[in-house]
Amino acid sequence: MPSRKALVCTCEDVTRLDLDDAIAAGFRDVESVKRYTGLGTGPCQGKSCLVSAMDHLARAAMLPESAQAPFRTRTPAVPTRLAELAGITPPPLTPIPPLVDPSGPHPLCSKEPLPERMDVVIIGGGIMGLALAYQLARRGHREVLVLERGYLLEGASGRNGGGVRAQWSTPTFIELAKESLKACADFARELGVNVWFRRGGYLFLARDEAAAKQLGKAALLHHAHGLRTRLIEPKEAADLVDGLDPKGVVAASFNPDDGVVFPWPFVWGYADGARKRGVRIEPFTRVTGIEVAGGRARAVETDRGRVATDRVVIAAGAWSPAVALLAGVKLPNEPKRHEICVAEPLKPFLDPLIAELDNGLYFSQSARGELVGGMGDPDEPPGLNQRSTLRFLSRYSRALLRVMPGLGALKIIRQWAGLYDVTPDHSPVLGETPGVAGLLQMSGFVGHGFMMAPAVARRMAAWMDGEKDELFTRFTLQRFAEGKLEKEAMIIG
Description:
The chain is an alpha+beta fold. The chain contains 14 helices and 22 strands.
């Protein structure tokens, strides 16, 4: 019998003992184990470890054959230099194949029956839903159920770059972000989980006059809200980051108090904190219907049965419009793919997260030295598409090397995609649903829900307990019908 100390993943030094620890923590599917241990996140992308890991899970975790699915194949097939990818003409976007959900219960769903009734049912086990569940439990709510269609990091909460910033263009977002930054700093003390919060700052670059003007206007607002944002010359930006080419940069702004967290423990921390306070979290459970009668939400139907409730919270990110339709409610949100990648680790050289306001490029260096970055595509059509593309790698590499030309030999080792939950004004949908009492909205955060979740969840839990809060009157679904948009301009990614 192989030693429990035997390596399974040589890229990330993952042993059989590490796999057993993941199983003991409640993880059985390979995607969750991958995120818990780092398995398959190195240069080989699981090619050398997937079979061994799956065999161990099948035996030690009694993983059924129907749940033994491999990692999704992604480009690049082998680690590839940025310079080579930048030399490729970006291929056109290809049509998105229709998303087909499998029928029947997930092979890893719990065999225990769901409760017949709960006070609050939260649909969506991402950062928003879990943070809200935790905050409700802190306020004494014990009958709270969180339903998640897959594993806890399957959606955008497990697919983002982990940036947390207070540099926004509206007072509301600035104040929410300030509170969330404090929550990140206090997270380990409050929930006992290290989220690797690193305050290296955010450095925004502008390459045209319109973006430069926006940075200047935002900086004035930031000062009014106590932020240490300062406008700097391109040369000073180059002094802040060794290797940054200031050519073509018109203006820049820097706030040293912004930072980056590691997303995965952030989500697990809220889940663990909620469970310890009595919240029931059910992954691998698909919601199939929302029962509405007499003008209010009455129950949630799932592939595991019906749960009666007086309050349903839709916190399903890019899937929120589809969930809302189950109650006959149409949301204006549209899901849009945003891709991201990781390059091989380097010695620490990059303190701030760098973002270009003009084209949405952003990149930072992780605690392990990897370069993590992404970039939106203005031609990306709406749709639940999480496939990876060579087009992204080409566009991203070109944009990155324009900022950091000395990184051409750096190799991209891993790539994935997540979904932005985009509203017409780039602001969230919160509060009661017109015409459906008890159906509460918590979606539409575009690409910044992860960094807003600590503050929004705390305030929403208080609002659900009867405390007044203008957040849940200003950002209601009704504003779109009334033309009262709440435009947020500083969107990247």
